[in-house]
Every structure is written in C-alpha cells, then in structure tokens.
Fold D-2-hydroxyacid dehydrogenase.
Amino acid sequence: MPVSAGQDSSTVTVLHGGDAPPGLSERVGGSRLRLAVSPEELADALPGSDVLLTWDFTSDAVRRVWSPELTTDLRWVHTASAGVDKVAFPELLASRVVLTNSRGVFDRPMAEFVLGAVLAFAKDTAGSLALQRDATWRHRETETVAGKIATVVGSGPIGHAIAHLLGAVGMTVRLVGRRATDGVHAFDELPGLLPDTDFLVLAAPLTDATRGMLHTGTIALLPERARVINVGRGPLVVQDDLVGALAAGRLAGAALDVFEVEPLPADSPLWTMENVLVSPHMSGDVVGWKDMLVELFADNLVRFREGAELRNVVDKERGYVSSTSGGIQ
C-alpha cells in the first residue's frame, strides 16, 4: 500500500519505553526524531508527527492517548513486533493510518526456539539438570522425535519456519491457518487434528478467533502424552485451564514463552511445575535482533518518504499481514 509523507523529510515519534532503538538516528536521514517514554511524553510528541514507531511493543500508551486532535498528521504506525494486538485498537483501525509490523525478523529464531523445546522434552533435559544438581547418576531412556506429530497453529512465515525445522528432524507437521490452502488446514479443522498430536505449537496472531483457543474443551481432545508450546501470544491460552490440566497429569508438559500477564507473576504455579519450561517472551530475540528491527523500519521509512509500497502492511480486518498486502497469514 503506497503511502507518502509528501516531502523529502518526515517527523518520526518513537515510543521506546526507556530502551531506544540502537543507531536509529543515523538511519533515518533528515527525518526529525521525537523520543517518548511515557504516555504523557507520547501525547506531547504526536502533534505534527506523520510517523509513529512503537519500539516498546508491550506498551498500551498509543491506545491510551489516541485522539483525532493528536493524530491529525499521522499517516503510518510501525510496531517492532510481529503481533499487533497492542496497537490494533478500534480507533486506529478505523482511521486512515497505515499499520505495519516487523514480520520476517523473528521467523528463524522462533523456529529454533520451538525445535529446542521439542528436543528438551524428548531428551528430558530438565530431568538431567535436576539429577546433575544432586550429583545423581540415573540411567533413563528418552524419546525420539522422528515420527512424532506436531500440529502448528499459525500458517504465516513463523509457522512455516517452525514446520521446516521440525520436518527436518523427521517429525510429521500439520500447519493450521485461517483458511485451508495448499498444505494448510483450516482453523475449524483443528479439533479433528488434536487427538493424535504429540506437540501442539501455538504461533498464531491474537485475533477474536484465536483468543482463548486452548481451553478445557480443546485440551480434552489432546492425548495425555501431548506437550503444548506457545510462542504466539499469552491470551491464545486460557492459562488457568492449562495449569489445571498440567497439575492433573492431563498433559505431559508445556513450554511457554508468552503469558496472559507479563511479566509472569511470582506466585504463578507455572514457575514451579516440573513439566513446564518458562521463558520471558524471548523466543525471537537473538543477538542482533534490535539492529534487524531498525534496518526494517529504516527501509520502510525510505519507502514512505518516496511514496513506494510499504513492507508488512497489516490487513486491518484480519489483524495480520495478509497475502494481498505483501505477506501470508
């Protein structure tokens, strides 16, 4: 979708939460930068800005301060994340403002993270570390992953990258997307896929259709041997239902990188469950990831100033980058 500043420069406001994008000032040419940490600073910076970069993608400051008076000149919002749930609120979606995301930066790292979790479960890495701490020599048999069935919910670039790596170690992978396409099952087919699933991987965007998709009812369709891996968004899972199933032995384990509330509260039972791997929303964050995010935004900024097609334009009706806007669902 072409969108232009209509001039050689632009005014870019950056919501960064105290961790400013590295090297951004050197990458934006003659654009004017306004840095904002708090909602109050964002409200002061927005008037006259035609570009907003939400570097702090966990903040809801944009939603809190949004008003026609402050966003009269705003043409484009870019979020430094693959998910857009923090900025895809009704007022922005109904506006003329174009929304883009950082699709493509996290695909391979998140796929490697998922593969690592699969292998950690199969080879009982947590058990070996616990025995090592106690200086206990205990021979065990572990599982092979070859031939295991992984159902991956989310058929975008991240889901495809996950499927590629899991397939490379001999797993049978089934991709699930919004609709059925070549090699992809439709979302409404998911209940029929769960009974023989060994690993259920959630890598879908958070939409009205996917929110709370893993609950007591869907968990009941999974075999007790199944493990759940969530690298999508925390609210894809009804967390209390998952905790109850894990505690009751209804599921064999879970690797969770995202949660309903982040940071995960210290009193959450997930911290101390032996069959749970907890990580702090870091599955896509590898060495150099911030530089890659800046590179993507800087490239799009050049396109914006030239009136060229922007990368990763989010379909406002679907809530993600669709095949008709430069990406796949």
The domain at 11-105+287-325 is CATH 3.40.50.720 (Rossmann fold). The chain has two domains: 11-105+287-325, 107-278. Residues 147 and 171 are 5 Å apart (CA to CA). The chain is about 30% helix and 15% strand.
